[in-house]
Every structure is written in C-alpha cells, then in structure tokens.
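#structure-requests
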Amino acid sequence: MKKAFVIVALAGLSASAQAGLVTTRIEANPAGARAADNTLSANEYGAGNSQSYAGNAASGFGGTLGNSTVYMGASNTNWQVGWQPGGNVNDLFVIYFNVDGGGTITSQNGSDTSDGGRRASTLPASGQGASVNYPITVSHTLVFGNFGAVLFSLAQQPGGFPGQITFLQFFGSAGGSGTGFREVSIPYATIGGVTGSTINWFGLYTAESGYLSNESIPGTNAWTGNLDGGTNIGFNAGTLTIANYNRFIPTPGAMALLGLGGLVAGRRRR
C-alpha cells in the first residue's frame, strides 16, 4: 500500500511537470517565523536562500523582472514573498497564483480596469483583440509596484460595479522606484489557505496602461502577433500562451516524499 501511494504521488508530480511545471521550491522549516522587513537575511529563504526563482532574462523593460529573483518562504500561518528586482521598479510585477490548485480564471477577462493594478490583474495584454491564456487556474494576484504591493482576489467584489475584483491587503512598505529588495507576508487565511497550502504561480511585468513587456517568470511563453520594437508585446493584437508555471510547497512532508521516491527508484535499479 505504501509503495502504491508513493507511485501515485510521483505520477502526479510527473504529470504536473508535463503540464508546464518548471521550478518547485520546498520550505523545510515552515514553523519558523519571518519578518517582512525588506531585508534579505542569510538563509531567510532556505539554506543559502535557495528557495528562489529566476526571471526569464528578457530585458524589454530594462530587466526589472527578467533579471530579478523571487523568493518564497512560509511560517505556520503565513506565506512570505520576497523580490529582488533586476532594475528600477517603474512598472508592475504581477504574480498570478492559486492556492492548493483552486481558482477558476484561465485567461485574461478584462473584468476590472479601474486602476493599473486591477487592469494588470485582469487584463495583462491591453491590445485590441489581444488575449492571454494561463497555464494554471488563477484565484488571486499579488501586484508589486513603486507604491508597495497590493493583494487581490479575482472573485468579484460583492456590491461593486460589474467585474470589480476584491481588494484584500495593501503593503505600503514594500515600495520604492529603485532596485531595493522588498517582501510581503500574507496570512493563509486571507487567501483561503491553511498551514502548508501549496502555491502555483507565474509572473508578468507590465505598465499600468497595459503595455505588456517580454519579461516574465518563468519563461518560454508563445506570442502570435506583432512585437513593439522587436521585443515587447506592447498594445498589439495577438495571443499570448503562457506555457509554464512555478510551485511553492511549504511542508517538509513533500521533501520526504520526494526522497522516498528516489529511494524506491534506487532500489529498482539495484
């Protein structure tokens, strides 16, 4: 029975990888409390701060996201996100994510364009006739800008105008137009999760106007349409298919499962 469980679990991980999963980072010490103090301390995000994700090395907007690094960690109650920009933060870095595989949004829907953060959350590409297809279902967005960061649920706000998404939390200290490290700490309860909830996510970098760059995390996105200046999507019409996503697992149990899977494979080889 235990072997069957391991095989099924590993099969699930393999299927996720085939679906476009690029990088998985695992929090081995979710009990440790962290301070969102906008300082990247030694081993704050795992040994050697190895719980990290790299940008796609594109530089259409100067490499602010393409040459950046995202860090993720967890305590028993909170999910923590750190971001080291690769250039001055003059535009919006949006993390589109779900919690434990939830969410219903699979493409841009343009439901809320009342400000830059909401536009980027619901309409990443603002070109006439442009569309963006997501690699995962999305339930929330976390938007970093020079103003700080803001967290949204993509569920429509009760009593709001048609299509208005729900504001959840503002992080004013995580701002600045320079290249300084910034981080936020989000209670699992705020995003409908529990201790150890898995986060699937991808990120884009866009202007508040909806002029979309070629910078993302992870990479390997497919765009059919014209490019602006030979690099950025801009306001052009076309279809962006985001092929890949990343995953964060805040539980040592997952690491143990992966290790057990390797042990089973090793025994088979012998």
